[in-house]
Design brief:
Number of domains of chain B: 3
Number of domains of chain A: 3
Radius of gyration of chain B: 22 Å
Cofactor (chains A, C): FAD
Structural class of chain B: alpha+beta
Helix content of chain A: 40-55%
Number of helices of chain A: 12
Strand order of the largest sheet of chain A: 1-4-5-8
Strand content of chain B: 5-15%
Structural class of chain A: alpha+beta
Organism (chains A, C): Seongchinamella unica
CATH architecture of the largest domain in chain B: Up-down Bundle
CATH class of the largest domain in chain A: Mainly Alpha
Helix content of chain B: 40-55%
Mean pLDDT of chain B: 92
Mean pLDDT of chain A: 96
Distance between the termini of chain B: 32 Å
CATH superfamily of the largest domain in chain B: Butyryl-CoA Dehydrogenase, subunit A, domain 3
Keywords (chains A, C): FAD, Flavoprotein, Oxidoreductase
CATH architecture of the largest domain in chain A: Up-down Bundle
Oligomer: heterotetramer
Radius of gyration of chain A: 21 Å
Low-confidence stretches of chain A: none
CATH topology of the largest domain in chain A: Butyryl-CoA Dehydrogenase, subunit A, domain 3
Low-confidence stretches of chain B: none
CATH class of the largest domain in chain B: Mainly Alpha
Shape of chain A: globular
Protein name (chains A, C): Pimeloyl-CoA dehydrogenase small subunit
CATH topology of the largest domain in chain B: Butyryl-CoA Dehydrogenase, subunit A, domain 3
Number of helices of chain B: 13
Strand order of the largest sheet of chain B: 1-4-5-8
Strand content of chain A: 15-25%
Largest sheet of chain A: 4 strands, mixed
Distance between the termini of chain A: 31 Å
Family (chains A, C): Belongs to the acyl-CoA dehydrogenase family.
C-alpha cells in the first residue's frame, strides 16, 4: 500500500505544472477566455507536442497507455491554471468513447488525429429535458439506406462550437428514459443538417446547442454496440468524473493558498487579516475540506485502478465531496477576499466559476448522493 | 401576542395589491430587468415616480417629511405585497440612506434642498463610505477634506460605489481631523457628482457586469453648507444610518419570493422521471431554507415591533443582516442547483427558447452579485464582532 | 400585530420565574432528580396552589381558561429550572386529552383533581415497535361485559411510575398502523392486570413500561370517540409539541447565558476565553440559533391561537428548528466549558440531556422535517 | 499509487482474523463491556495479556523493545480487523503514551524497569498532564517538584485523569523551574501511585459514571531516577508524545464499526411501515457521515504512509484529531437518533428484553462520554490554532 507516484508520473506532473506556470499565466488565460473560441489552438498544438493528448490511448494507436493516475495528475495541474483548452471534451470524452468503445477501424482512423492535435472532438449527450440523466434521450436515429438518419437537439455541448468531430447519443429503440436502445454515432461536426448555436459559459468555455435535422451517418460510424451505448457512455463518464474531480482539486489548492496568502498580507484594523482567530479557524476548515476531498480522489483513483468492487460508490462519494468542499472553499475564498473577491479582475471569482461548472457537470452533489445512497442502502 | 391582521390592515393590503397590480405593468417590468443602464435608469425613475405620486415612496420616513406614517404592520404588508410580485426595491442610497440622515441631522436648508428631489427621484444618489485598502475597517478612512473659507477641498478615493456612473450626488465620509480616535475627525459631506475633480472608474464585478465603481476626488471643492451637522461628528450620523441599513438588508420578503421562484422551477424540472420538487434531497435542502426563512420573518417582525415601540434598532439589526444575507445566498445557490448545466449561462446570451432555459442567466446574475451581500454594509464578520460586544458583552 | 404579553401573562411568567429562582435552585433540583420518584410532591402541591395546574382548563371545571401563550410562558420558565415535576405528562397530555376529548362527566370527575394537585396522570401511547408513529398501536381493547378488556404493552410512559390515572391508546379495530380504530381509555394506574417496570431516564425523570393483561375498563371511560382516538391524540400532541418547544427555549436561554458567562471569567493562555474571536463568533451563532428558534415558537403559538391554515407546518418547522438549534447550542455549551462541561456536577450536561429527551419526544428533527416536506411539497 | 493488498498482507489478515475470532470469546466480550471496574479491570488485563502472548500488544513499538515491526499496511489491517469486531482498543496510557516516551527518551534502567510490565499489562498507567484551571493551556501547569537530594518533592494537582483509581503508576509533567518561557522548566516524572501523599478524588462524568479523577500530590517524594531525560526538558518529550496521541485518536476503524452498528439497528427500526434505513433524510445523514469517513480513512493512510517514509507525525496529526473526533461524535449522535426514545435510558437500567431496546444505554454511554473527545488530547480549538500556525503559516 503506497501513495507514491512513479518517476514517469512525477515527470509528467512537473511538466504540466511548469507549462502552466510559465506559459499559461493569468493575463494569457484572460486573453484566451475573452477570445471568440475561448481557447488557443497553438497551445493545443503544444499539448500535443508534449504528449499530453496521447495519455489515455493505447500504444498501438500512438498513445501513451496511461492510467487514471496519469490523467489525474494532468487534470490537477490544468485545474491550477484554469486551462481552457478542451482536454475533457476532446481527449477524455470524445477520445474516451473511441478508446473504450470504438471498433479497431474507427480507432485507427480517429485516435491518431486526437493525439497529434489536429482534431478537436465533442460528446453531445445532453438534451433540454434530460438534466443529469444520461439515459434521457429523445434524439432519434432511424435506419435509412443502410445507415442512420439523426434528428433532435443536443444542448450545452462542451467544445461543441469548435469540435471537428462529434459523438452523439441517439435513440435507436426504446422509450425516452430507457437505458437500452441508445446508440452512439460518430460524425463530422459540419455534416449536412447540423446547425450549431454557440455561447460562452461563466467559466469562459464556449459551448453549443446542436440541432440535427435528417443528418446521415453510415453504419460503420456507430461507436460501440447498437442499442447498448448507455453502458459505454456511463463508463466513460465515470472516468470523467474522476478527471473533473482532479481538476477541481487543483482549483481548490489554488483558492486555499491564494486566500491564505491574501490574508497574510492584507491588513484591517491595523492587523493582518490572517491574525484574526475566527478567520484562522475558517481557513483551517477549508484546508481540511481540501485534504478530505483529495483523499477521496485518491480513493476513487485507486478503486478504478484496482477494479475494486466499491468503485462506483467511491466515485459518487468523491463527487459529493467535491461539490461540498468546492462550495465551502470558494465561498470562503470570495468572502475572505472581501470587495476584491467580487471583482471580475481578480482570479478568485474565475476559479469559483469553474468549480461551479464542474459541480453541475454529470450531476450535482445531490444527484451523486442519491446514487450513492441507492447503491449502498438499497 | 397577536399576528392577525386587523380589518383595516386587510383593507390596506387590498389597496396595495390593487395599486401594484395596475401600476407595475409588463412594460415597466421588462425595462426594469434590462441589463442596459440606458434602459433601466429611466425605468427606475419612472417606477419610483409612480410610487411617489401614490404617496408610498418613503414608508420609513416621518409623515412631516413626506413619509407614510405607517405602523410596522402596514410596512410589513407593503413589503410583502411588493416582493411577492418580484417588484424590485427602490434604489436605497437616497431614500433609505442619505434621506434619513438629512431629515434627522441636516439643517432646514438641507432638508428643503435635498429631500423633495430624493422623494421624487429627480436626483440619483450614491454612497461614498468604503475606501481602497480599508475594507471593513470603515473608520480608518483617508479621504481628506481641508477647509478653505466656505469650502472644503476633498482629496482621496472611494470604492465599491454602486451606480456612481449614474448618480447626481454622492454622500461621503471624509476626514477633517487626524486627532483623537480614528472615529473622531470624520465629517459627513454631500457632494455634487458634477463637481470638477471627480473621476469615476468602473469596476466589472463577478457577475461580469458594471455597477460598481471607484470614485476619485482630486481637489474637489464642496461648500461647507453641504456638511451634515457638526464638523468631526460624521461618524455618529453614519452609525445611526448603518443600523438602519442593516435592518433593511434582511430582505425577508425578497427571499420568500426567491424561494417561490425556486419552487416553481423545481416543479417543472424533471430528472429521470421524478420532478425535482419531489426529490428527497432537494426537499431537504429547500425546507432547511424555508424553515430558517419562516423563523427570520418572525425575527424581523420582533425587531420591527420593538423598534416601533420606541427602541432604536440596535445590535439586533446585525443579526438580521447576518441571517438575512446568509439565507438570501442560500436561496440564490438553490436556484443555481435547479438551473443545473444552465447555471453557467451568462446574461445577454441566446434567448431562452434557443437556449432551452430561462432560469440560468437570472440565477447566475443573482447568485454572483449576491456574493457581495455578506461583504458590504459591514461584513458579516464585523456584524458578529458587534453582536459579541454589544449583545453578549464579550 | 404585536408580540406583547398581557399584564396577566407577565404576572404568570414572573411568578414561575421567581419560584424557579428562589425555590428550585440547583441543589434542590439535584436532590429531586436523585430521589426515587424523580419528583417532589410538595412542590407539585405548591404548583397547584399557585394555580399553574389549572391553566389550560375551562373555567367551569375550576380552570384558568388559559391559551397557548400562557402554557408557553410557564413551560419556558420551568425549562430554565429543569423542573422535574410532571407538568407535561399530567396537565398537558393526560389533562389535555380530558380537556379536548373527555365527555362532560369525565371532565367533571377528573379535571378538578388535576387542578388541585391530588391526581397525577400519564398518557401511555408508545409501544416497542412504534418509534414516532402515534398510529402504530398493537395494544388491543376487545369488547367484554359491556366494557373493554385491554391487552398489550406500553413503553417509556412519562410519569408512568407515579401516575394515579392513565389514558391508554388501544386498538378497537383496524390494522397495526391504521389511524382509524384507535380508542383512548381512562383507567386507574393500579387497576388489576397492570404491571409497571419503572426506570430513570438521562434527564432525571422516572418513566415506566406498562404491561396490560386483561385489564377491564368500562365503556364510560372511553376518552373521545370510539375508534377515533387518533385525531384527538394528534391534536393534544401538536399542542404538546409547542409546549415542549417552549421548555426547550428556556433551556437554550440558560445554556447560552451560562456559556457566555463562563467564557467571560474563565482564563486560558492568560486571556479570558470570551476574548478569543473564534469563540466569540461561535457564541454569536448560538445566540442567533436561539433567536431563530424563539421566533418559530412565537410563530407556532400565533398560528395556533389564530387557528391559521399553516398551523401544522408551523409546528413541524418549530420542532425541526428546536432540534437543530438545541444540538447546536448544547454542543457548543459543553465544548466551550471544556473538561467542566463533561462532568455530572455541572448543570450544563443536565440541560443538554433534557434537550436531547425533548428532541426525541413525539418525533425527532428528521421525523418532523419529513412531515413538513410532505405537507408542503406534495 | 497502489492500495491493493499484497499476497502476504492477505495472509496476514487471515492470521489476525483467526486469532481474534478465537481469542476474543463471548466471555471476555461480556466482561469487558461491564460497567463495574471489579469486573472490567481484570478482564482488560486478561485480554491484553492474550495480545501480549501473541506478540501483538504493541504494534507501534520498535521490534527491539517488544514491538511488532509492522509496516503501515499491516498496522492498518490489524486495526481494521480489531475494530470491525467491536474489540476495544488497549488502554493507551502505558502502551501508546508513556511507553514510547520511555523507549525514546528514557534511561536504560527505566527501559528495563518499566517497558516489560507495560507490555505484559502487569502495571496500569495513568496520565498526569491537565491541571485544575489550566484547560487547554497545558504549559501553564503549576504542580511543582522541588529537588531534595536524590528526590523530588511534588505538590499540586492533576485533573481529568482517566482510571487513576485503577492505576499503579502515573506519568506527570511537573514544574521544576519558573524561569524562562512557561514551556521551559517542565520535567517529566514517573510516579508510583502508592506513594504517600497521593490522593485520588473521583469525578462523575456526564455519562453518570466514574472514570475520571482529580489526583492530589501532597509532599509526594519521587526518586530523581524516575525523571525522564533531562530536568526542565519535559515539554519536549511530552510534545513528541502528543502528536503520536493525536494520530491514534482519529479512530477511523472504530468509527467504521460504529457506522456498521448504526446501519444494523436502522435496518431493524421501523417507522410507520418504513425501515429507518430507507428513510431519505436518514440516508442523507448516514451517507454524509460515511463519505466523510471514507475520506478520513484515506487521509489517515496518507499520513501514515508519510510517517512510514520517515516524516515525523507533524501538524497533519492535528487534522486527524479534529476530523476523527468530529466524525466519531457524529456517529455517536446518529446512534442516539436511531435509539429514539430509548436514547435516554441509562446504563445499568432494566435488561433489554424488559426495556424493549438494547441500543439505548450503549448509545447513551458512547455519546455522552464521547463529548470529551473534542476536548481532551488538546482541544480541537487548540488543534486548529496549531494547523493555522504550523501548516498555513498564519
Amino acid at each position: 500500500m503506497n501513495f507514491d507516484f512513479t518517476e514517469e508520473q512525477v515527470m509528467l506532473r512537473d511538466s504540466v505544472a511548469r507549462y502552466v506556470q510559465d506559459d499559461y499565466d493569468w493575463d494569457t488565460r484572460v486573453a484566451i477566455a475573452n477570445s471568440e473560441t475561448g481557447m488557443d489552438l497553438t497551445k493545443w498544438q503544444t499539448f500535443a507536442e508534449l504528449g499530453w493528448l496521447s495519455i489515455p490511448f493505447a500504444e498501438e494507436h500512438g498513445g501513451f497507455g496511461g492510467g487514471a493516475v496519469d490523467v489525474m495528475l494532468v487534470m490537477e495541474e490544468l485545474g491550477k491554471g484554469l486551462v481552457l483548452e478542451p482536454y475533457l471534451a476532446t481527449v477524455l470524452l470524445y477520445g474516451g468513447l473511441l478508446h473504450k468503445g470504438g471498433n479497431s477501424e474507427l480507432q485507427a482512423a480517429y485516435i491518431p488525429a486526437i493525439i497529434d492535435g489536429s482534431c478537436l472532438g465533442a460528446f453531445a449527450y445532453l438534451e433540454r429535458q434530460s438534466r443529469f440523466e444520461l439515459a434521457d434521450v429523445k434524439t432519434t436515429a432511424s435506419a435509412s439506406d443502410g445507415g442512420y438518419m439523426l434528428n433532435g437537439e443536443k444542448v450545452v455541448v462542451f467544445n461543441g462550437a469548435s469540435a471537428d468531430q462529434l459523438i452523439v447519443s441517439a435513440r435507436t429503440s426504446g422509450e425516452q428514459s430507457d437505458e437500452h436502445g441508445i446508440t452512439l454515432f460518430l460524425l463530422p461536426a459540419d455534416a449536412d443538417g447540423i446547425e450549431r448555436v454557440s455561447y460562452r459559459m461563466m467559466d469562459g468555455q464556449v459551448v453549443a446547442n446542436i440541432v440535427l435535422k435528417d443528418v446521415k451517418v453510415d453504419a460503420g460510424h456507430v461507436v460501440g454496440e447498437l442499442d447498448n451505448g448507455f453502458a459505454l457512455m456511463t463508463a466513460v463518464v465515470m472516468d470523467a468524473n474522476i478527471a473533473l474531480s482532479a481538476e477541481a482539486i487543483g482549483i481548490m489548492a489554488q483558492l486555499n493558498s491564494k486566500t491564505v496568502e491574501y490574508t497574510r498580507t492584507r491588513e484591517q484594523f491595523g492587523v493582518a487579516l490572517g491574525k484574526f482567530q475566527a478567520l484562522q479557524h475558517r481557513m483551517v476548515d477549508t484546508f481540511m475540506s481540501y485534504e478530505q476531498a483529495k483523499s477521496l480522489l485518491y480513493r476513487a483513483v485507486c478503486a478504478l485502478t484496482d477494479d475494486a468492487e466499491d468503485e462506483v460508490q467511491a466515485i459518487h462519494a468523491l463527487r459529493v465531496m467535491i461539490d461540498k468542499a468546492g462550495k465551502h472553499i470558494f465561498g470562503e475564498a470570495i468572502q475572505l477576499h472581501g470587495g476584491m473577491g467580487i471583482t471580475d479582475e481578480l482570479d478568485i471569482g474565475h476559479y469559483a466559476k469553474r468549480l461551479m461548472m464542474i459541480n453541475t457537470t454529470f450531476g450535482n452533489g445531490d444527484y451523486h448522493q442519491a446514487k450513492f445512497n441507492a447503491v449502498r442502502y438499497n | 401576542m397577536d399576528t392577525r391582521f386587523a380589518p383595516e390592515d386587510i383593507a390596506f393590503r387590498d389597496e396595495v395589491a390593487e395599486f401594484f397590480d395596475s401600476a407595475y405593468d409588463t412594460d415597466i417590468e421588462a425595462r426594469l430587468s434590462s441589463f442596459d443602464a440606458a434602459v433601466f435608469k429611466p425605468a427606475i425613475i419612472e417606477w419610483q415616480k409612480r410610487l411617489y405620486e401614490r404617496g408610498w415612496i418613503a414608508p420609513g420616513w416621518p409623515k412631516e417629511y413626506g413619509g407614510t406614517g405607517w405602523d410596522a404592520t402596514k410596512a410589513f404588508i407593503f413589503e410583502s405585497e411588493r416582493a411577492s410580485r418580484g417588484i424590485p426595491e427602490v434604489i436605497p442610497f437616497g431614500l433609505k440612506m442619505v434621506g434619513p440622515v438629512i431629515y434627522t441631522f441636516g439643517s432646514d436648508e438641507q432638508k428643503e434642498r435635498f429631500l423633495p428631489r430624493i422623494l421624487s427621484s429627480d436626483e440619483w444618489w450614491c454612497q461614498g463610505y468604503s475606501e481602497p485598502g480599508a475594507g471593513s475597517d470603515l473608520a480608518s478612512l483617508k479621504t481628506r477634506a481641508v477647509r478653505e473659507g466656505d469650502e472644503y477641498v476633498v482629496n482621496g478615493a472611494k470604492i465599491w460605489t454602486t451606480y456612481a456612473q449614474l448618480a447626481d450626488w454622492i454622500f461621503c465620509l471624509v476626514r477633517t481631523s487626524s486627532e483623537g480616535k480614528k472615529q473622531e475627525g470624520i465629517s459627513f459631506l454631500l457632494i455634487d457628482m458634477k463637481s470638477p475633480g471627480i473621476k469615476v472608474n468602473p469596476i466589472v464585478s463577478i457577475d461580469a457586469k458594471h455597477s460598481l465603481n471607484e470614485v476619485e476626488f482630486n481637489d474637489v471643492r464642496v461648500p461647507v453648507a453641504n456638511r451634515i451637522g457638526e464638523e468631526n461628528r460624521g461618524w455618529t450620523y453614519a452609525k445611526a444610518l448603518l443600523a438602519h441599513e442593516r435592518t433593511a438588508i434582511a430582505g425577508v420578503a425578497d427571499s420568500k419570493r426567491g424561494v417561490e421562484v425556486v419552487r416553481q422551477y423545481a416543479s417543472a424540472e424533471v430528472n429521470g422521471g421524478t420532478r425535482l420538487i419531489d426529490e428527497p434531497l432537494f426537499q431537504k435542502r429547500l425546507s432547511d431554507l424555508e424553515i430558517e426563512l419562516m423563523a427570520l420573518e418572525f425575527t424581523e417582525l420582533r425587531v420591527l415591533a420593538s423598534v416601533a415601540s420606541g427602541d432604536a434598532p440596535g445590535a439586533e439589526s446585525s443579526m438580521l443582516k447576518i441571517k438575512g444575507t446568509e439565507i438570501q445566498q442560500q436561496v440564490q445557490e438553490l436556484a443555481m442547483e435547479v438551473a443545473a448545466y444552465y447555471q453557467g449561462v451568462l446574461p445577454g446570451g441566446p434567448e431562452p427558447d434557443v437556449l432551452g432555459n430561462s432560469l440560468g442567466p437570472k440565477a447566475f446574475k443573482n447568485y454572483m452579485y449576491g456574493r457581495a451581500a455578506t461583504i458590504y454594509g459591514g461584513s458579516n464578520e464585523v456584524q458578529r464582532n458587534i453582536i459579541a460586544k454589544a449583545v453578549l458583552g464579550l
